[in-house]
Write a structure and sequence with these properties.
The complex is a heterodimer of chains A (242) and B (332). With 242 residues, chain A is α/β, with parallel strands linked by helices. Chain A has nine helices and ten strands. Chain A has helices at residues 44-52, 74-79, 97-105, 112-125, 141-154, 171-186, 198-204, 222-227, 229-236; strands at 6-15, 18-28, 33-37, 59-64, 67-68, 82-84, 159-163, 190-194, 207-212, 215-220. In chain A, a hairpin with a 2-residue loop joins β1 (6-15) and β2. Chain A is globular. The relative contact order of chain A is 0.17. The model of chain A has no long low-confidence stretch (mean pLDDT 92). By secondary structure, chain B is mainly alpha-helical. Chain B has a domain at 26-240. Chain B has 14 helices and two strands. Chain B has helices at 2-23, 27-52, 60-78, 82-101, 109-129, 158-180, 182-192, 194-199, 204-230, 235-238, 241-255, 261-280, 287-302, 307-318, and strands at 139-140, 232-233. Classes of the chains: A alpha/beta (242), B mainly alpha (332). The A-B interface holds A 52-54, 73-76, 78-79, 83-86, 88-95, 99, 102-104, 106-107, 110, 112, 115, 130-131, 133-134, 138-141, 151-152, 154-155, 167-168 and B 180-182, 185-186, 188-189, 192-193, 195-204, 257, 322, 324, 326-327, 329-330, 332.
Chain lengths: 242, 332
């Protein structure tokens, strides 16, 4: 069997008496879009944090392209090619949109002119080029989320992990970000997304992993998962019952 | 057009600064200018760590003192040329900054500020009791042949004026490099959020230390200059909290996170503090500090972005601004 792109094995995270992740295992192949869904408090963000270096797992391993990266610090994880965004959107408020993306681009382009060129390219891709001189604080939530994706892409990741990038968007904005993420995948970036917006999950995902109370409940194609009575009961509710 | 105007203004300011010693009557205004340049240099240094990287140090006097003491002690005890002493002091201050910056690298906001005050107080008390460098009696720099080589001038203050101006120019070049390079972008990202910096691949420990070390080096250079200018130093004149506070004020009131902010701040605050001290201080009523305090209060209330921030926003308004109004922001 070949080495999996990202392999999460038996990851457990305990916080003083609370088990946020309990023996979670899954793997991601290159080029996939994998969604992680589950009710609030299921441990999705903790799992994200364990993979991206914000928490060290209490047990288990995270293997990235054959290399054990368990417990690596977040900046190191990023330099190895895994980028992420935050549930509560984070951009640099007193920088312009262009400068924000340049800050990410500097990782692999130490020279200013090259960082700027790459940043402008990404602003075209993400549809923010007309707003390049806006300050980060002046953007709408939807634009901030797009900017955050652009910043993450500027670090040239092989894997991009998005934490609720679609929450609170209008239907039009949702459509735009879905097509943006498809474009990102086309460019060879693998995606793992935590998402509550089922519409986006159904459209985008190749595979869905369901977490509940810190444990992996099931995984499968979007269709399989929404048809699973356990998933309906734990998370989706009667509305999704086939 | 805007570029050309800026060039004309810059050229006029530089020319004025170069001929100013010939125009000023007597030594007092020249002294005020020299102190202004020296505080501006301290402010430019602080601004790299405080303004760009968001580390609010209230302990820069420690590095000012380390620089002053390093060159002065090397000179008095071993006859080392003060220019060499300046480099040694700068490196020593940077190494000290790294040593203290490492354990403090995760402290943020207020906690960093408190740690910096504690650090500077430890340094002050240590120097007060350190026999090798004269303890509380301090060090007196022996008279030497005046000239650039010995960093000593006895007749006119004008040479000190030009050296202080040159130091400030170098400090501004460092600051400009920081502002426009990758390091400057990284500093600003760290100021916004450590988490965000990390997901952009930035080692915030490393870059915070870089900012601290640059600031320490520039502060130490200002310290050596001060020692060679006053020719005497003791802990209570260089490593004291009021100096640390003044450094912060100069940057904040001028405009933190801008290249020229600290210079503008120093140009406003240092003359005010010197003049109120000379004119009002001798009455022993503290009126000078009241006037000084009131002015700081006025600027902070009416122009919290700093004077330079205000001036550059005036300039920006004339430039074509982005027209589309940002929609009101929703909170998640």
């Amino acid at each position: 069997m070949s080495v999996p792109f990202l392999d999460v094995r038996g990851v457990t995270k305990r916080f003083a008496g609370l088990v946020a992740n309990d023996d979670v295992s899954f793997s991601v192949s290159e080029g996939e879009i994998v969604s992680i869904i589950g009710p609030n408090g299921a441990g999705k963000s903790t799992l994200f944090a364990c993979i991206t270096g914000f928490h060290a797992p209490s047990a288990g391993t995270v293997t990235w392209q054959g290399r054990d990266i368990t417990g690596f610090k977040a900046d190191r994880v990023c330099r190895l090619g895994i980028a992420r965004t935050f549930q509560i959107v984070q951009v640099i408020g007193d920088m312009t949109v262009l400068e924000n993306v340049m800050t990410g681009a500097f990782l692999h382009a130490p020279a200013r002119t090259e960082a700027r060129r790459r940043a402008e390219e990404l602003l075209v891709t993400t549809g923010l080029i007309d707003k390049r001189e806006f300050l980060g604080t002046a953007l709408t939530i939807a634009d901030k989320k797009r900017l955050e994706v652009a910043m993450a892409l500027a670090t040239r990741p092989r894997l991009l992990m998005l934490d609720e990038s679609m929450a609170g968007l209008t239907p039009v904005e949702l459509k735009q970000i879905i097509s943006l993420l498809r474009e990102v995948r086309k460019r060879g970036v693998t995606l793992v997304i935590v998402e509550h917006v089922m519409e986006a999950v159904m459209q985008l995902s190749d595979r869905v992993i369901v977490l509940n109370s810190g444990k992996k409940l099931t995984e499968g194609t979007p269709r399989e998962v929404v048809a699973d009575p356990r998933v309906v009961q734990a998370y989706l509710g009667e509305r999704y019952r086939a | 057009m805007a570029k050309r105007a800026r060039f004309v203004v810059a050229a006029a300011v530089v020319t004025l600064l170069l001929v100013l010693p010939l125009l000023l009557p007597g030594p007092v205004p020249l002294h005020i200018m020299i102190m202004t340049f020296n505080f501006a240099l301290l402010g430019v240094g602080w601004n790299i760590m405080g303004g760009y990287a968001g580390m609010f140090s209230f302990g820069q006097a420690a590095f000012f003192g380390i620089g002053a003491y390093a060159s002065s002690w090397l000179l008095t005890a071993h006859g080392v040329n003060p220019w060499l002493g300046l480099l040694v002091g700068g490196v020593l201050a940077a190494v000290t900054a790294a040593a203290i910056g490492w354990p403090c690298s995760k402290l943020r906001g207020h906690y960093f500020a408190i740690a910096s005050i504690a650090f500077a107080e430890i340094v002050r008390i240590h120097f007060n009791n350190w026999k090798l460098v004269g303890a509380a009696e301090g060090l007196t720099i022996p008279m030497a042949e005046p000239g650039l080589l010995n960093f000593q001038f006895h007749g006119s203050k004008a040479p000190y004026y030009y050296i202080a101006l040159a130091f400030l120019a170098v400090g501004l070049m460092v600051s400009r490099w920081v502002a426009t390079s990758r390091a400057g972008f990284y500093f600003r990202a760290i100021k916004e959020s450590h988490e965000l910096a990390m997901v952009l691949g930035i080692s915030f420990v490393r870059y915070r230390m870089l900012a601290t070390m640059l600031a320490a080096f520039l502060s130490a250079a200002a310290g050596t200059f001060y020692a060679q200018y006053i020719l005497y130093l003791d802990p209570e004149s260089v490593i004291i909290l009021p100096i640390s506070v003044q450094v912060v004020l100069v940057s904040m009131l001028g405009g933190a996170g801008t290249i020229f902010g600290p210079v503008v701040g120093a140009a406003i605050l240092v003359p005010i503090s010197e003049i109120t001290r000379v004119e009002l201080g001798h009455r022993g009523t503290g009126v000078d500090m009241m006037v000084y305090g009131a002015l700081i209060w006025l600027i902070s209330v009416y122009q919290p972005r700093g004077v330079w921030g205000f001036l550059s926003s005036l300039g920006r308004r004339k430039a074509p601004a982005p027209t589309a109004a940002p929609a009101p922001e929703a909170r998640p």
